[in-house]
Amino acid sequence: MTRLPGSARTRDWTALGVLVVLAILAPLLLSQSSLRLTALFLPLALLAMSVDILWGENRIISFGHGAFFAAGGYIGGLILIGHTYNPISGAASFLEQGGSSSGLDRLLGHLHDISIAGLPVPALLVPPLVVGAIGLIIGMIVFRVTDPEIYLPLITLGITVVAGLWFNDVDGIGGSNGLGGIPSFTKDIAGGGTTVQYVFNAAFVVAALIGYAVFRQSQRGATWRALGDDAVRLEALGYPVRRIRAYGFAVSVAIAGLAGSLYAATAGVIGPGLADITFSAQPLIWVAVGGTGTLLGPVVGTLVVQWLQQLLSVDLGLQSSWQLFLGLALIFIVLLAPGGLLGSRREGILARLPRRRPPPSDGDRGRRAPTTRRTRRLRRRADVTPSARVVHAMPDPSAHVNAWSPHALSSLVLMGRPGAAAAVDIDGRRVCSGGRS
Amino acid sequence: MQRPGTRRDFIKQAGAGASLLGMGGLLAACGGGGSTSTSTSAATNAATAAKGPIDVGLLNSLSGNLSIVEVPLHNVSLMAIDEINAAGGVNGRQLKAISQDYASDFTQAVQKSDTLINKYDVAITIGGYTSASRVAVIPTFRDNDAIFFYGTYFEGLECDPNVFYSGAVPNQFLIDYVPWILSNLGKTFYIVGSDYVYPRTVSAIVRKLVAQGGGKVVADRYFPLGTTDFGAVISDIGTVKPDVVFSNLVADSVPAFYKQYRSAGFTAAKNPIAATVTTEDEVAAMGAENGAGHYMSATYFQSLPNDNNKKFVEAYQSKYGADAVTFMPLVGTYNAVWLFAKAAAKAPDLSPASLSKALIGATFDENPEGAPITIASDHFCNHPSYIGQANKQGQYDIVKSFESRPADPFPPQVVPAGKRPECPVATVGK
Amino acid sequence: MHTVMNVLAQGLSLGAVYLLSALGLTVIYGVMGVVNLAHGELLMIGSYVVALTAGTLSVPGSIVLAFVGVGALGVLLDAVLIRFLYHRPVESMLATWGLGMVIRQVVILLFGTELRYVALPIASSFAIGFGASLQWWRLVLIVCGITAAVGLGAVIARTTFGMQMRAVIANPGIAESLGVRSAHINRWAFALGCGLAGLAGALVAPLRTVFPNMGVPYLVGAFLVVVLAGLGSVRAAIFWSIAVGIAFAAVAVPVSDTLASIVVWCGALVIIAARRRPVVVARV
Fold this sequence. Notes:
The complex is a heterotrimer of chains A (437), B (430) and C (284).
Chain A: H1 6-29, H2 32-58, H3 65-81, H4 91-97, H5 103-113, H6 122-142, H7 148-169, H8 194-217, H9 219-229, H10 231-236, H11 241-267, H12 277-290, H13 297-315, H14 322-336, H15 373-381, H16 406-415, E1 422-426, E2 429-434
Helix pairs in contact in A: 1-8, 2-8, 2-11, 2-12, 2-13, 3-5, 3-6, 3-7, 3-11, 6-11, 8-9, 9-16, 12-13
Chain B: H1 11-15, E1 38-40, E2 54-60, H2 67-86, E3 95-101, H3 106-119, E4 124-127, H4 131-144, E5 148-150, E6 163-165, H5 171-174, H6 177-184, E7 188-194, H7 197-212, E8 216-223, H8 231-240, E9 244-248, H9 253-263, E10 273-275, H10 280-286, H11 288-291, E11 295-298, H12 307-320, H13 328-346, H14 352-359, E12 363-364, E13 373-374, E14 383-390, E15 396-405
Parallel strand pairs in B: 2-3, 2-4, 4-5, 5-6, 7-8, 7-9, 9-10, 10-11
Antiparallel strand pairs in B: 1-3, 11-14, 12-13, 14-15
Chain C: H1 2-32, H2 39-80, H3 89-111, E1 125-129, E2 132-135, H4 136-158, H5 160-170, H6 172-177, H7 182-204, H8 215-229, H9 234-252, H10 257-274
Antiparallel strand pairs in C: 1-2
């Protein structure tokens, strides 16, 4: 049980296979201009995936990923251009710095000159590393907060506000005009056409998905999900919850940074508007539409929403009114189809309304912890019927003997953390046991 | 019916890349604008269609938060094309508009300009609106050796062999404005502006002009786009007591600032605001009582009394509604289409090289700004300028007119003599 | 001293706006565990009520209408949407963000995107000593902000409705068994929170700018306060609103608004990080 249940694993790989086939077919089926747009949407899909790592897997919502995405785009863009960009950014700085070569310019120049087989590798490596490092520092600070589910959105919102102001004001990155003329990663590869660009971006998305799929099925992935189920319990079990979360956050924003760099190079421009709350909220919408916590949901959601926008807003001339439908869709998804497009057929909130009168309590079962969507789904995946609920020997800090979480349980049992000796009995039969006492 | 109008130019950078989804932003409440639409004049003359129409690319946001301004720009381009076609076209060839909607998203602007150049092979692309959109697309035009015509006034500090600019740059409405303020309104300036490239550039020029004129800039403050509370700076203005507040605030900041300024006890008679971007729309939103008496400098006001403007406003309103507003970038775009037609008429062919040669020196006499407009060798145009004073009806009365002035995209006030680039730095068509 | 007075005056006035925008957010979270991201849009509706009716009802009348009207809208929203989101902070954020998009677009379709004109009823100011002055409308904001907060506190502490609200927060099951209709209480609490948003929007409309996209900055400001105060605590919200307002003004009056924003947000992040078990989620 450490891993995703076998059925889910199979489904992950099958879905991935289907996606790869579609990705390969796309250049044959789509027109050049559609392919160009798709190439532009792919880094956004990667951004959505980075958001889902936090949200789908750990129930933490970030409104700050736009800022990290933009940061990655700026860093990548500066390296691809090879120098800072001042002449247009405000006359005041033009006076003092026009054409001068600062230390930063020299560094960017050096990074710009490095390329392996025509590929400007530093622009791919530096953004995620720098952004990830920033994310790690921020993560170590913010995950001191209890209740990160509630407070992280608010904190990351603050990060977005500050970043937006800073990107607009700091010298060398074009101010409000942004950076223009960023060359694409593939300009020196096989002619650098639209198809090459598409394939390059698609390769990153597929690689990221494979990595994500492997992670989801690993022990670390199980721990990460367990954290989303019941962080308090994991902490009580001796897991360094804060550090795990900080690492997870760092990885997530590093991917956002990489996506930003890909985006900047594909679009050719990057601007401070990306570090904006409205933009930062978009990946959440994409993920919700595609399905949280599903492997492909974020990617599919992004492509569907972006293409719908293109069709409804641009091609059908609905202009911004199409957001009315997007907003309604969002509400619909939360209430009725929390799985989004790809999620399992989970019941929506409406189906799970508390009855007006609480049902009579049967015996001394005590108060049950709220059953999360994830728990319910995984219960089903684990083929544990709800009646087989009695769990023994589970150190339970909140004293809810019947409250249990398959993730917390499984990683506890099979990873053998100190102090985590445990056994699982279902219907009186010892199902598994593990750990050291 | 169209409700074009609000020249909310500058919300722009606020939206910058954020507008992937349009931000629910300031979309125009107008019906117009499917995207990739094409339109030819009804006046197509079969006899002259021998050589086929000339394709003109129009690159505007017909959706998203910039559409509120760019739909009118697109409309005026179509109107100019119709006028040109009705007048017989270019040497008998009709103009045909190829529209591409970049949906207020600069990343798409890059792609759509590439489509215009490589798929439709247009003779010229007219459009763009914010500086960010221009900065985004220029490399594409440079790489493909195509020509882009930008019709909005902007901060300058740029010239490009592949770009022509029919909008004004700051020197054209500041060089005469600042000395006029110094001799008529007072010597000490307090500059406020929204925080982005254009206000910062204007303010850098104003600072130098004020110093040259013997005045003094006592403060220079910037506010994030979207700021609507100016209590702090207004209390500071009360402390510093300048003669004039020079405002480069834009969009939603403007009504808030003027309202709070008056309610803090400042009057236009004693402490006038001299603005560069406070349009009639913003005066309407702040209430005429809060705007009355304050000043604004521009190369175009809808109220200009010259005949060309009367004809232009009448034509525009008869087409897009009696309450349609004409404003600076609208006129710039209108001029761009006409200047292209004039140039195309004398160019031997429409290759970028020939066209760009022909564009230099092209003149359009019916410029609504009230003086013939000509493209100079640096790809910029000359413009007259006017100082307006807001009246109690929320309109601007023209209090002073200045002769047409050549553009100086790299004004000596901000760019040291040694660093002035030669414009254009290269020629099109290698 | 002159600057200090200016900072205090502006800080209180800014703080009052933060407080007014944060109160509704904090009540709604406190009672029903809903993080309402459509709060800025509800505030915007309050502003539109004033922009559209001030001519016929006079400004004070339209402010009352904004409070009542947006509160009534709250009842409707609760019935069709919010009641499904109780105690689901994450889902509620997503659904109310969608709700905010819908409200914005509906307002755009109905009233267009133009900036709306609202006359300032008292367009003058008065001296507060040391050469500093305060605009009358800012005083109105300060008085209304504090009155609303104190009034809300009194409602919670002194009235039967407040007592039932606290009972529902503490233990809905027992409250119900004692005859408190928790659905009823939740609905009115949500309406109260919405009404407070409408009131905030109505009060800022004459001083600031009214347009469909105006809500987000207020939401962000309200968030700043609740991050510091803890969601759901009225007393802490009063303290932190004023603290944030004065901190902002202390930088904005002598230096710049941009720097003030950066200082305030970075300060907030540092404060949060410094409190190890920081934000006790007090419930009202």
